[in-house]
Amino acid sequence: MCIAVPGEIIDLFPPQARVKLMGVETTINIQLIESPKIGEYVLVHGGCAIEKINRAYFDDLFNIFISIIDEDEKKDG
Amino acid sequence: MDKGLARYLINEINLMATEEIKIMEVCGTHTQMISKLGLRSLLAPKIKLLSGPGCPVCVTDERYIDRAIEIIKKYDVTIATFGDMIRVGGMEGSLLEAKGKGRDVRIIYSPLDLIKMAEENRDRNIVFLGIGFETTAPVIALTIKTAAERGIENLFCLTAIKLMPPILDYILKQPSHNVGGLICPGHVATIKGSDYFRFIGVDYCIPAAVCGFEASDILIGIHYLVKQIRQNKKAAFKNLYRRYVRSQGNPIANQLIEDVFKVSCGVWRGIGRVESSTLDLNEKYARFDAKQVFAVEEKSIKSTSCECKDILLGNRTPKECKLFAQLCNPVKPYGPCMISSEGACAIAYRYREEI
C-alpha cells in the first residue's frame, strides 16, 4: 500500500500540479514539497507529491553500487 | 533494469552464501517485487528472504473492520476507503459484502478527494478508513487539516495508522527471532528519513539498509546486507535509496504528522497489542475522530489456527503453515497474511513460490 511512483510536473497551479505518471496525466497535491517547478520529478503517493527526486542519484544505479563499495573499502582502509 | 548489474549482484550474493542468512523486508511492495521477480529462485537456497508485517491492510485489526461495518449499519454514513480494504473481512463480513447489501461504501484513490466529496454532500456524513504506515500518514493529516481549515463538519476519520519502529522492536526483541539483516521500507523512509531506521544496527546489532523497489535496488540491498553479515559488521546501516530518501526525511510531512496525530498503543492483526505503534487524531482534531463520534459496541475476536503470527515475525514461511493453499486461500483467507493482495501468503500463493 505504500507504493509510490515518480512523475514529471508539467503544469503548476498551487496547491495542485499536473503530472505525467508513467505516460498518464493526472492532477496531484503539492503541499508536502518545497518549491516545486515544472520539469521536476516528484514521487507521488495517494494523490500527493511526497518528495522531489534527487537527480544526482537517479540515473545510474551501477555507479551508486560502485560508490557503496568504494565507501566501504575506504572505511576499511 | 540493468541486466548485467543484476546478473553480477546475484552471482556475488550467491558466492557469499556459504551459510544460511535470513533477510527480512517489511514492505508489501518489497514482498510483491521479490516474488514477481522470482528472486528466491535466483538466489542460493541459503539466502532466505522473509516477509515481515509490511502490509497495513493485513495487520489492521479485525475489530477495526467490524467497527466500520457497525458504524455504517447503525448511522447510515458513507464509508470511504482505499480499494485494498474493501475485500478484507472482519468477524462480521467485509465492506464489499456491506456494499452488496446496499450500504454506501466508496473506494477512493486519494484521501484529499474526500474534501470535494464532503463539500458536495454537506447533508451526508462520510467516514474515511484512514489506514497505512508513515508513508500515508501525512496525506491523511493534510486531508484532516484542510477539512478543519474549510470548516467541513461532515467528514470523519477512523484511524489505524501503524508505525514501523515499534513493530520492528517487537520482532527483534523476540528471543526466537532469526533475522540476520533488514531491508527497510523505502517509502516510509522517504517521509521519516533514513535515520529513522538507524536504531536497528545500534540497538540490535543487525545490519540494515533502506532500499528502493526496482530489481537492482533490492539486489543491491541484499548484496550489501549479505556482505555486512559475512564480514561481521553487525551495526552497519546504509541508505541505498538516496534518490528519494534524505537522512531526516520530508520536514513538511513530518510537521503535519506532528500537528494532527498523537502516538497511541496499537493492535496488530495476528500479533496483538504493541505499545506506541499507532497514530490517532490528537485533541485539536478530535472532532474528526469517528471512534468518538460514532459509538458502537466492540466485538471480541475469534482465534484462528493459522501460523500468521509466526510468519509476520519471520519465524515461519507461508508454506510451513498447515492451512496454506489448502483451507486458507485468497478466496477464503483465514489469517492476515492471506487477506490482502500484499500479504506474504497471498503473494506466495499467487506466484506459487516454494517457500
Q: Which percent band covers the strand fraction of chain B?
A: 15-25%
How many DSSP E strands of chain B?
11
Query: Main beta sheet of chain A: strand number and arrangement?
Result: 5 strands, antiparallel
Q: Which oligomeric form is depicted? A: heterodimer
CATH class of chain A: Mainly Beta
The strand line-up of the biggest sheet of chain B is 4-3-5-6-11-10
Number of helices of chain B: 16
The largest chain-to-chain contact, stated as pair and per-chain residue counts, equals: A-B, 28 and 49 residues
Helix/strand-derived class of chain B?
alpha/beta
How many β strands of chain A by DSSP? 5
CATH class group of chain B: Alpha Beta
Q: What coarse outline of chain A follows from CA principal-axis ratios?
A: elongated
Low-confidence stretches of chain A: none
Q: Please name the CATH topology of chain A.
A: SH3 type barrels
Structural class of chain A: alpha+beta
Strand order of the largest sheet of chain A: 3-2-1-4-5
Number of domains of chain A: 1
Share in β-strands of chain A: 35-45%
Number of helices of chain A: 1
Distance between the termini of chain B: 25 Å
H/E element sequence of chain B: HEHHEHEHEHEHEHEHHEHEHEEHHHH
What does this structure look like?
The complex is a heterodimer of chains A (77) and B (355). Chain A has one domain (5-76): SH3 type barrels (Roll). Helices cover 21% and strands 40% of the residues of chain A. Chain A contains one helix and five strands, in the order βββββα. In chain A, strand 2 and strand 3 form a beta hairpin. The N and C termini of chain A lie far apart (42 Å). The mean pLDDT of chain A is 83. With 355 residues, chain B is an alpha/beta fold. Chain B has a single domain (1-346), classed as HypD, alpha/beta domain 2 (Rossmann fold, 3-Layer(aba) Sandwich), CATH 3.40.50. Chain B has helices at residues 3-16, 28-36, 39-42, 62-75, 95-100, 113-120, 137-149, 164-172, 186-192, 199-204, 215-230, 251-260, 290-293, 308-312, 336-339, 344-350; strands spanning 21-25, 47-51, 78-82, 105-108, 126-132, 155-162, 181-185, 208-211, 237-239, 261-268, 272-281. In chain B, the strands form two sheets. In chain B, strands 4-3-5-6-11-10 form a six-stranded mixed β-sheet, with helices on both faces. A five-stranded parallel β-sheet of chain B has the order 2-1-7-8-9. The radius of gyration of chain B is 21 Å and the shape is globular. The model of chain B has no long low-confidence stretch (mean pLDDT 92). The interface between A and B is large, with 28 and 49 residues.
